[in-house]
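By way of example, we now present a protein record of this kind:
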Amino acid sequence: MRRFLGLIIGCILLVGICFASGKTVICIDPGHISEVGAGTRGKHVTELEIAWQVSLRLKQKLEALGYAVVMTKNSLRQVVTNKERAEVANRAHAVYMVRLHCDASNGSGFASYYPAVKGTAYGVAGPGAMVLKLSADYGRRFHAALAASLKGKLRDNGLKTDAATAVGAKHGGALIGSIYSHVPVVLIEMVVLTNPKDEEFISGAAGQDAMADGLAAGVQAALNRG
């Protein structure tokens, strides 16, 4: 209950600040810890750490571009469910929610995911038609800009739908964070953390900065501001 009240109070304060400033709000969701666990890990770093570190860099870059930024959590190890993460963006009236994760597989590289169909979680179906349309439109522009920025640095695994993920498929084609989202949303698997070269890239300051640059360029392109 205290955790939930803290999220609500933080969002209320931020909404007031954003409305007063008249700035466009972007929600950054550093993946994990959530109801599905603390995420994957490489040999030297964890998904939890990388998502948090890149999110802080991205926040700075977006603020420098004139956006107001709301984060779905306030500290590295804070536990926030995927439903609550979506509700943070909803309450802040964000125009876009950017969710940061790292993958675990035999491959390498980055990919972007967006909801293309409604799913169902905990008796709720979503997202709505407008969120589906905007997520697709924004997602195409977002991923193209991200891929251009990271060209030659990481393998581009393309733009995919939530249904291509295990959790999305389990819930009818949409991730839980998408089902509860009232704003356009994209999830990025920034690297395959179990791949040594990917892990080396994203572990360093230069790689994290390059990723944050690409993500910021993606947001700009998604909103036709690039």
Q: What stands out?
A: Residues 129-150 form the longest helix (22 residues).
